[in-house]
Amino acid sequence: MKALLVFLFSLVVSPSIFAQGRTVPFFVSTQWLADNMKDPDIVVLHVSFGRREYDAGHIPGARFLWYNWLAESTPDLSTEMPAAEKVDTVLENFGITDRSKIVLYFTGQNITTTTRMLLAFSYFGFGDAISVLDGGFDAWKSENRTVSTETPVVRKTLLTLKTNPSVISDADWVKNNLTAPNVAIVDARTKNFYDGNGGGILRQGHIKGAKSIPYTAMLDSTARLKDIATLKKIFEDAGITPGTKVVTYCHVGQQATLVYAVAKMLGYDAAVYDGCFEDWNVRGEEYPVVNPS
Fold this sequence. Notes:
The protein is of the alpha/beta class. 33% of the residues lie in helices and 15% in strands. Helix 6 packs across helix 11 (255-265). It starts with a helix and ends with a strand.
C-alpha cells in the first residue's frame, strides 16, 4: 500500500507524466539525464551567451549553443526567430538528426534563456523531442556529477527543417483575440511591470485584458520548477481553465517562454507573442495598454 501511495504521489508532482507521446519530457531531472546519456540519439546543449563559460566546464558530451544563433536581434526588435536556412546549418553542425532527443541546460538562474531555445527548437520542428534540464548546470554540479572541459567531436548531419508557426503569435492576432472566449493573453513579466511601475518605456502597464503570471512564479529558489499541483493552481487562480489557448508575452520574448513551456507541459494549447511588449508598446491606440498605476 505504501508503494502504491508513493507511485500515485509521483504522478501528481512529476513533470514527466505530461510527456506522454513525446520522445523526452518537457523538463528532465539530473538523474534522468545521467541514466540516458548513453542513448546515441540524446544531444545535450549548453546554452550560454559566451563560449568561455562552456570552456570552463560543462556536462560531459554537451555541445555549446550560443544563444544568439537561435534568437536574433534586429534594429527594430529583439529576440526574434532567425531564418530557417541559418538554423538548419547550426543544427547540422550539432550532429542533430530527425531522431535526436535534445536536452538543453542553463547556468545560474538563466532558465529563460534555455526555454527561449526550447521555443526555437519547437518552431523549427523539434517540439516533441526537446526538453530542459530542471535546475540546470548548478543542479548537476551540486550532486557532484562529472564535469568536463573537453569539446566533443561531432559529425555534421543533413537536415530539412519543417517549421511549426503555431508556437508563435503576432500583434494582430493578439489584438483580434483580446476578448475571445477560451483565449488567455498572459503577461509573464514581474508584477511591477504589469502594474505600470516598470519605467523606461513609452507606455507603461500591460496589454488590455492580459492576466499576470510572472515567470518567477514557476520556480523555487534553486531555479527548479515547482511541483505540478502548485503550477496547475497558479494557472487556475489566474482564471485559466483547461481548454484555454494561452498566449504569453514579456518584454522581448524570453521570460514568456518559461510560462509557455509550463503551459504546454500542463496540457494547454500555448504560443508566445514573439514581438512582446517591445512591439505592442510602440503601436497605435488600437493596440490598447492598461496602466493600473
